[in-house]
Backbone:
């Protein structure tokens, strides 16, 4: 099929590349000429495992191309996906101006004899599909089209595999012809398809992300009880997760959730519920626990070091999760900023996130960014593991111990094995786990 993806950001680029990979002809549209030029030159603006190879392969096969022209995309495609940003506003609600603007542009270029399916791929509040429909009709009363909601469920760091082998595909629509075209698009993916009305499809994404965030905040709240009682949150989570009704996924205690999706989607769902007159107060507690988790972690560092001013602290990890270069709403970035505010001397390393942190000027002046994990710990009085990159599992712990001034480790992701850390001479403090002193030589 011939498809158009409007918006070549994270969702749009990954979706377009994967649609092309299964044989569709895809036009990716973006209003940023520099980005389009970069993509045409083979440069990928984001790091996502496997994405660069798929883009290059399908551009070479002429199944994927890039343009700034919405008219070009609409003219040559049966189905038009809207995958533009939906940034949060100060009150937590979603800024839909990009969606509205694209809907107007589609209306202005849609010819009278063209039937098109317009798909909301961006994460949007419930009833957005109705507004997109009204907008296109307002600016092109004679247009022949249907609007579909097709929420994305991509996890950064494994987005390509999530799209190529999805858990489910949600199609929200009221027209059989439009739904049939959507099913044809997803036929090569061999995944379960759930067909709903548009409003239900739009709610599914916000409800799913909010529930996952709830699980994270739940186990983080449990971790505080574990620390107070001497229990081990990892064993508690294992015991909970063995219940098939609950499952082990997203029961990993840590510094809390971050990134471009969870904080925004939870705030949006709260705003949506309040706008509908049914406040979702449980989610406000989820937000509170998440914010408190980082503060509790810093308090433990402060208790161990007494005063943070002039203390040399190494931080491993700046991205909000591993296998991505995304530093948006990153808890490790916030952590570094908080440490510097208290006068700490911070040296940080991340395998992929350093350039983006520099580009967006997210770190305070004075933070030293290094080229390796070992370089970061030179002379450090404490090491914080903030992002669980696999690379850190292979670092020579004996060499880390040798380079550090004080063998004190704060593991914000429960990444390391406590016994192993103690055997290498570290005082090891994790989330919701008993403190292990170093083993004597």
Residues:
């Amino acid at each position: 099929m011939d498809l158009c993806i409007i918006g070549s950001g994270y969702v749009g680029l990954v979706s377009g590349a994967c649609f092309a990979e299964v044989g569709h002809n895809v036009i990716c549209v973006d209003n940023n000429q520099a980005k389009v030029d970069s993509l045409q030159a083979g440069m990928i603006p984001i790091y996502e495992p496997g994405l660069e190879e798929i883009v290059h392969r399908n551009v070479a096969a002429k199944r994927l191309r890039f343009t700034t022209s919405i008219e070009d995309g609409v003219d040559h495609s049966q189905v038009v996906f809207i995958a533009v940003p939906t940034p949060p506003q100060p009150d937590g609600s979603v800024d839909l101006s990009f969606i509205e603007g694209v809907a107007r542009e589609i209306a202005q270029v849609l010819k009278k004899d063209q039937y098109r399916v317009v798909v909301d791929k961006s994460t949007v509040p419930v009833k957005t599909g109705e507004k997109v429909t009204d907008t296109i009709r307002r600016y092109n009363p004679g247009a022949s089209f249907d609007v579909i909601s097709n929420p994305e469920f991509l996890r950064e760091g494994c987005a390509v595999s999530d799209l190529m082998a999805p858990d489910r595909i949600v199609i929200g629509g009221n027209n059989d012809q439009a739904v049939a075209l959507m099913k044809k698009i997803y036929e090569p993916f061999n995944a379960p398809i759930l067909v709903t009305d548009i409003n239900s499809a739009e709610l599914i994404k916000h409800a799913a992300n909010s529930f996952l965030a709830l699980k994270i905040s739940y186990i983080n709240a449990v971790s505080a009880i574990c620390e107070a009682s001497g229990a081990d949150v990892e064993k508690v989570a294992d015991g909970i997760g063995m219940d098939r009704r609950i499952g082990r996924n997203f029961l990993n205690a840590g510094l809390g959730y971050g990134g471009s999706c969870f904080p925004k989607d939870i705030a949006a769902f709260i705003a949506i519920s309040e706008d509908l007159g049914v406040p979702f107060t449980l989610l406000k507690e989820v937000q509170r626990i998440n914010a408190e988790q980082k503060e509790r972690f810093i308090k433990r560092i402060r208790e161990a070091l007494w005063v943070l001013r002039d203390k040399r602290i190494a931080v491993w990890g700046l991205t909000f999760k591993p296998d991505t270069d995304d530093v948006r709403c990153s808890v490790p970035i916030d952590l570094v900023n908080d440490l510097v505010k208290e006068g700490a001397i911070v040296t940080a390393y991340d395998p992929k996130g350093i350039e983006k942190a520099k580009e967006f000027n997210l770190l305070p002046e004075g933070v030293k960014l290094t080229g390796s994990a070992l370089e970061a710990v030179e002379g450090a009085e404490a090491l914080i593991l903030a992002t669980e990159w696999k690379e850190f599992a292979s670092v020579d712990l004996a060499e880390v111990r040798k380079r550090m001034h004080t063998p004190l480790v704060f593991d914000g992701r429960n990444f390391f094995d406590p016994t192993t850390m103690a055997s290498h001479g570290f005082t090891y403090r994790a989330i919701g786990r008993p403190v292990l002193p170093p083993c004597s030589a």
